[in-house]
Amino acid sequence: MIKRPESVSIRPSNVKLNLTDSIPKIWNRDDYMTTYVGNALSLLFPEGESFFVDSVKYFQSKIEDPKLKEDVKGFIGQENMHSLNHITLNNYFSEHGYGWVVHFSQWYMKVTTRALRWLPKRTQLATTVGFEHMTATVSEVFFSRPDVINYQHPQIRPIFIWHCIEEIEHKDVAFNVYNLVGGHYLERVFGFFVAFLFMNFSMALFISLFAVKDLSFLNPVALIRGLWIQFGWNGFFNPIFPKSLKALKPSFHPWEEDSSEVIVFWKQKLKKLEEENALYFDKRAS
Ligand SMILES: [Fe+2]
Ligand SMILES: [Fe+2]
Predict the structure, then answer these.
(1) How far is the CA of 166 from the centre of ligand 2 (A)?
(2) Ligand 2 centroid vs 195 CA: distance in angstroms?
(3) pLDDT tens per residue across span 9-46
(4) Could you tell me the residue range of the domain that residue 114 belongs to?
(5) Where are the alpha helices (DSSP H) in the chain?
(6) Beta-bridge partners for 152
(7) Which of 18, 98, 173, 275 is most buried (CB neighbours < 10 A)?
(8) Ligand with an atom nearest the CA of residue 79
(9) How far is the CA of 139 from the centre of ligand 1 (A)?
(10) Ligand 1 center to residue 53 CA distance, Å?
(11) Is 286's pLDDT higher than 90?
């Protein structure tokens, strides 16, 4: 039976951001679309993660296994910290030229997650299982591309490294709770498709809004370059789609891909970043 490696623990941590006015608007690879992908992901998180947390919390009282109880506590703590830091980042975007884009996204996320809450509770949890698979998949692909990470502006990079580490750490928690409360394959597949469509549609929408705000969609060279970076040869999104679809296997388990070494590597790297370049963390500020 596949299980999470013993070495992986789920403990909430923090990475306090020190975002200064010196961050360029286009902070990733000097490329509009690459920047918008990061911005759009950040806009999805606060409300999205509060939906994930609530869907798991609803079943918390049914859990008797002490280890799973601890995992759920860790999951809730981690997601809450992610939300808080992405609110900080989104406020930064709002104050630096993207006010209406951020406000619209907040309204959109409220309305759409409220609609998801009309689903039966266990189906909501199945949807969270789908979302968690998507966030872990994006995180694993992100860590397989140090070139992509290197292009990020150093003041924004830590939040993505930190968040992706924890998405991998807790990737099986909602899945384990779902199985415990009698979840079944067809509902899990339904939940996956809801999550897959929701995430892709919302990302495309938010990216388009940023492009409208900057009028960058009028620049065909930038548009083609952006599409090439995301979907062309060695495009960032290329491995994400086939990896996501692994969730459709009846025998799927989030830890069938053992990414525990990735976590160890990037935790060390994050610590090193913290030591070498404390400007981007709390320590320099204090
Ligand atoms: Fe998260
Ligand atoms: Fe998560």
Answers:
(1) 7
(2) 13
(3) 999 999 868 798 989 999 999 999 999 999 999 999 99
(4) 32-285
(5) 32-57, 66-95, 99-116, 121-143, 146-151, 157-169, 173-180, 185-214, 220-231, 240-244, 260-276, 282-285
(6) 28
(7) 173
(8) 1
(9) 10
(10) 10
(11) no
Residues 251-268 have a mean pLDDT of 95
Is 123 within 8 Å of 191 (Cβ atoms)? yes
Q: Is the pLDDT score of 282 beyond 70?
A: no
CA of 15 to the centre of ligand 1 (A): 13
Identify whether 13 is part of a domain: no
Ligand nearest to the CA of residue 171, numbered in listed order: 2
Tokens representing 117?
């809450």
Q: Does pLDDT of 183 surpass 90?
A: yes
How far apart (Å, rounded) are the C-alpha atoms in residues 244 and 257? 12
> Residue 152: which region, alpha, beta or left (left: phi > 0; alpha: psi -120 to 50)?
beta
| pLDDT for the residue 77 | 98
Residue 263, in any domain of the structure: yes
Percent with pLDDT over 90 in the chain = 86
User: Rounded to 5 degrees, what angle do the CA atoms 214, 216, 219 make?
Assistant: 155
Quote the ligand 1 centre to 42 CA distance (angstroms). Answer: 10
State the distance from the centre of ligand 1 to the C-alpha of 194, rounded, in angstroms. 18
For residue 55, is it within any domain?
A: yes
Predicted confidence band of residue 277 (pLDDT cuts 50, 70, 90): low
Residues 68-96 have a mean pLDDT of 97
pTM above 0.90, yes or no: yes
State the distance from the centre of ligand 1 to the C-alpha of 280, rounded, in angstroms.
Answer: 20
Supply the Cα-derived Rg of the chain in whole angstroms.
Answer: 18
Query: Percent of the chain beyond pLDDT 70?
Result: 95
Q: Of how many residues is the chain composed?
A: 286
| Residue 243 amino acid letter | K
The ligand with the least distance to the CA atom of 173 is 2
> What distance in angstroms lies between residue 214's CA and the mean position of ligand 2's atoms?
31
